[in-house]
Amino acid sequence: MQLELLSFICLFLLSSVSAIPRLTHPKRTENGIHFPIQMNARRSSELPRRAGLTGMVGLGDFYDVTYSFLVNVGGVETPLVIDTGSSDLWILSDACTTCETELELFPQTTLAESGLDVELLYGDSRTGTRAAGIIGSDTLIFAGISIPNQLFGAINDTTTRVLETNCTGIFGLGFALNSVIWNKVLAAKFAASPSRRRDTFPRRISSPNYGTRFFPDLTHLVSTSSRKRLAPEDLTAAIFASYSGQGPALTRMVSTLKTPMFSVALQRDVLDIGSGNAGILSMGELPAGIDPESLTWVPIRMYPDALTPPADSPNEKYPIAWELFIDDVFFDGVVLPRSNLSSPNIKLSALVDTGNSLIRGPADVLNAIYQRLGGRTFACSTPHTLSFQIGGKIFPVDARDFATQAFSNQLRDCAANLFETDPPELDKGYQYSWSLGQPFLKGVLSSFFFGNLTHPSVLPPRIGLLSTVPADDGPLLKTAIASGIAANSGNQFSTFDPAPTGVPAFSGTGIPTADGVVGKLEGNAKATGGAESLRDSFALSMFAAALLFCIAV
Questions:
Q1: Taking a C-beta distance cutoff of 8 angstroms, is the pair 82, 96 a contact?
Q2: Is the pLDDT of residue 548 over 80?
Q3: Which of 133, 259, 265, 340 has a 20 to 30 A CA-CA distance from 534?
């Protein structure tokens, strides 16, 4: 039965995106800001406060499963998944042996090859997919910013299914240390033998979504009694020096932004369409009219063994992922017990992950939620509130985003947008036990502040959150359920917004809202039914819940 359901979901998706036309080659940006960037490694609070770069792009939304924005790579404008859970940029190339699409793929013959292969593995102990290809470079343009010689993976073999979500790759927005490509390039630079340049790291990856749980290990580059490579302090200096030329795109951009940050708001295209946030990615500043003091700013986890501190700051610790600390988790106003599946000595934390269509957490805590619900399915019209206390403030998941319908053509029974994840092990790899994906992020404006990349103690990285969940989300849920029953054959409404080609304009300042968007932006592709509510939206609702099986987690 499970296999039949999953086959149905995947077949539905394939049929729903089968009429996507080919993209066109845009002109190069004439006034883009050009790189390379010289990183500032000095230990000072005097980080450059420039006039600096700012920019904003609108986001596409594939039925609240993936969010994307347009990126020009080597002259091809293509939609990429926005992913704060990973740090790598990869794009399907026209040499891909497993890709069938009408989207324009990256022309691999134009790639400036590095001579290195890459294999990106996704999933956890329950699932697994891969994306393999070659590492190369080309000019990258988005939000009017031009980045020449940007390294990325040109993927020619994959078991992922990003194409079914109208995307051709993934744009990771994380830290350099979490980048498989950057680690591979750095290792090749100091490899003992040129013959090792085409080897891939035999890493076991464990992640809830497109983003990898690759955990950096640079010890193989440090001198030992049997081989001479780099002293730890020399390796750290080499790492800092590599950021400007070989780092991920956002790492290279940090020193040129007005403020070293980006912000994300995700729109809602399932159930209550057109309500809530407008989908945006804002670079270098908060959206107009938002006071930084209105956000709750919290530190992110630092990993003491991620990188040897520099000699002038021996106590430095470094971030690897956008991982914030959680005070407590509540369900319907009652605090949930802590998980018994991981050590009590691990401070509770969560990955903030735009690439995850669900909220993932410890199996025993999720079971406690199901017990309170009375089972895995429950009445769609009964509002429930899953909340996370972060920085002393409660951040609820909007009742409209907590669940999805469980059966076709009836909106009586729903299932929670939750999924189990592997528990962390003390002092071994990543330490987070929750992944706050799109159901959580549709109810906040989230801001990601890089701080000082070389000396985080001077200007620490942090995440800022501002809740956008209305006080009447419960009544709004009931209204949306009633509308689906009455006007959509007992199914919740769903729609697909392609990544827009323009920058959204808003009627006012403050948190960008869907009803505040001025005009309709053109999408990057006009797929059949691309901007229409689907009559049979059940399969797409289930697709989000079955993302691990059908796409690439």
A1: no
A2: no
A3: 265
Angle at 540 between CA 538 and CA 546, to 5 degrees: 105
CB 221 within 8 A of CB 229: yes
Residue 193 has pLDDT above 90, yes or no: no
Task: Specify whether the CB–CB gap between 129 and 552 falls below 8 A.
Answer: yes
Q: What is the reported pTM?
A: 0.84
* Confidence tier at 525 by pLDDT (50, 70, 90): very low
For residue 126 the two structure tokens come to 């329950």
| Cα 543–chain centre separation | 18
Task: Centre a 10 Å sphere on the Cβ of residue 285 and count the other Cβ atoms it contains.
Answer: 20
Take residue 45 and report the two structure tokens written for it. Answer: 């609070």
Residue ranges and CATH numbers for the domains of the chain are: 2-550 (2.40.70.10)
CA distance to 63, 495, 522, 528, 529, per residue, from 16 (Å):
11, 11, 19, 7, 8
Give the burial class of 509: count Cβ atoms within 10 A of its Cβ; 0-12 exposed, 13-18 middle, 19 or more buried. exposed
Q: Per residue in 116-134, pLDDT tens? A: 999 988 665 555 678 899 9
- In angstroms and rounded to an integer, the radius of gyration of the C-alpha atoms of the chain is 22
- The tokens for 281 are 């990615």
Q: What does the buried/exposed string (b/e) look like for 49-80 if buried means 16 or more CB atoms within 10 Å of the residue's CB? A: eeebbbbbbbbbbbbbbbbbbbbbbbebbbbb
